[in-house]
């Protein structure tokens, strides 16, 4: 029997799963997370869902090979479409873009309640995703950031605690600097002084300072839209201010 190796990110997900729970893994790919949960006796049952047929065929092979067919079920599903309401105690959505995850959560709202553990790991559009959580009453109970293969990843442990949506604001300028800081970098990560986040902040500051230097040079060139350049400079100054505010948390 072949072996398997979970990424550090998926190992963290597995470590956060509520013991003896029914787990629905959305976008399961080859079902290595559900297989791991079954082999380690973390879950009582796992449902591996994916919209793609070929990965599910491989998932089926893996499930049979590791002899967990009695505890891991596969379903061809667009997001949570084939999941029954309140069927799962834990829903994991990892390794997708933030916008796609937002769409899956919105469409699957009636499949979960306030007790369902949502383990969410968006790999892009983090600021937009955190705003979505806030506006839709999804509470972040804890959050962690890790670095793997030179990429930064977050994992959020969430609950959908209310059905009332908060009023959306029109643009980033509508949020205060503190709100922006929390949306961009995560209030829980800042409070817990996550060391990987500090590394990301220091990197982001260097990038912003480098871009600011280049934009200031452009301002002096001919045929440049000065108004747009000045607007960009103001935005970069605000970005650096917010990064400095976050770094000061450490």
Could you walk me through the main structural features you see in this protein, from its secondary elements to its overall organization?
The chain is an alpha/beta fold and 250 residues long. The chain is built from nine helices and seven strands; from the N terminus they run H-E-H-E-H-E-E-H-E-H-E-E-H-H-H-H. It has helices at 8-16, 32-39, 53-65, 98-107, 126-135, 177-185, 187-191, 195-219, 226-247, and strands spanning 21-26, 43-50, 72-76, 90-96, 117-122, 138-148, 151-160. It has a seven-stranded mixed sheet with strand order 3-2-1-4-5-7-6, sandwiched between helices. The chain is elongated and about 70 Å long. The relative contact order is 0.10.
Distance between the termini: 47 Å
Helix percent band:
40-55%
What are the secondary-structure elements, in order, as H or E? HEHEHEEHEHEEHHHH
Strand content: 15-25%
Descriptors for this entry?
250 residues; alpha/beta; 9 helices; 7 strands; 44% helix
Please specify the SSE layout and strand pairing.
Elements: H1 8-16, E1 21-26, H2 32-39, E2 43-50, H3 53-65, E3 72-76, E4 90-96, H4 98-107, E5 117-122, H5 126-135, E6 138-148, E7 151-160, H6 177-185, H7 187-191, H8 195-219, H9 226-247
Parallel strand pairs: 1-2, 1-4, 2-3, 4-5
Antiparallel strand pairs: 5-7, 6-7
What is shown here, in short?
With 250 residues, the protein is an alpha/beta fold. Helices cover 44% and strands 21% of the residues. It is elongated.
